[in-house]
């Protein structure tokens, strides 16, 4: 065999191994002594936490019924999600620590807009990691992990908009593109907002096996959750023009009817997407001002009460489609209402491979 053939064979082998590594499942969950089920904490900062990053992993993991999933806030009181919705957590971090002094098995860290450098948040995440928790940074939750020093000498990925800046600031991390999620030891990182869906299924697979993950994926109408991703297709380009122009146009309020048992996954995806158009913002509308309990136990504080000041329009009921088709239909509805470029702008922000 000549050296060209050997070189070609080496390249093919390298690409095959790279593909295999990219699509490899997350490390299998190892039960802790004395714990019958894994404990998953979803961290939120009261001031501003990204809607989908927080709600979607909670909803998917709670629906799987393979772990005790607990929604946390940094302090007592509601969490203001951004760009839409307001929810009440099930415990503060202090209450969680008192109940689980040995730490969670998994900690989900969403994009915490104003808290990615808060010392208390960084120290809590570091402590959870030291005590054996697997830390999952979703979207710009990766910034919290980087600021906490958890990504030093590790492989990681991030939102397409953030990864270049993170690479410049955190040079001791090997930043990987074209990945939906990357696992390195007890640290998992993801790309943009919509990566919260496949990484949640990957966690279910790690905890309970592929059969359970497939069943949950089927309920979402999702057929795969691999780490395969083409990040090169996500660039600002002409979308910046759309963003600038949209800021000069009317910003209408769109209502989403909510009641007890509302699907928090679909609610988050719809409210988040419509609130990113720069042409509209979504508000939850209930029959009374009383908090609403979602399908899997989150407390939702309605933005409006039916009969109060009316929204410009009410969006279709959330129970028409499963969550992932809901996201696709929402982007189609945004296209129909505001045009193709605005729908593409939303897909770009949440790093969703739409069209």
Description:
The protein has two domains: 205 residues, Rossmann fold, CATH 3.40.50; 111 residues, no CATH class. Helix content is 39%, strand content 18%. The protein contains twelve helices and 18 strands. A seven-stranded mixed sheet has the order 6-3-1-7-8-12-11, with helices on both faces. A hairpin with a 3-residue loop joins strand 4 and strand 5. Helix 9 packs across helix 12 and helix 10 runs parallel beside helix 11. The longest helix has 21 residues. The chain is globular.
Structural class: alpha/beta
Listing every helix as H and every strand as E from the N terminus to the C terminus, the arrangement reads: HEEHEEEEHEHEHEHEEEHHHEHEEEEEHH
Q: Tell how many strands the DSSP assignment holds.
A: 18
User: Architecture of the largest domain in CATH?
Assistant: 3-Layer(aba) Sandwich
The CATH topology assignment of the largest domain is Rossmann fold
Query: Radius of gyration from the CA trace?
Result: 20 Å
Largest sheet: 7 strands, mixed
Helix content: 25-40%
Biggest β-sheet: strands ordered side by side in the sheet = 6-3-1-7-8-12-11
Coarse shape: globular
Which CATH class of the largest domain?
Alpha Beta
| Helix run count | 12
Proportion of beta-strand residues: 15-25%
Poorly predicted residue ranges: 2-20
Mean pLDDT: 91
The CATH superfamily title of the largest domain: Class I glutamine amidotransferase (GATase) domain
Structural domain count? 2
Distance between the termini: 44 Å
Oligomeric state: single chain
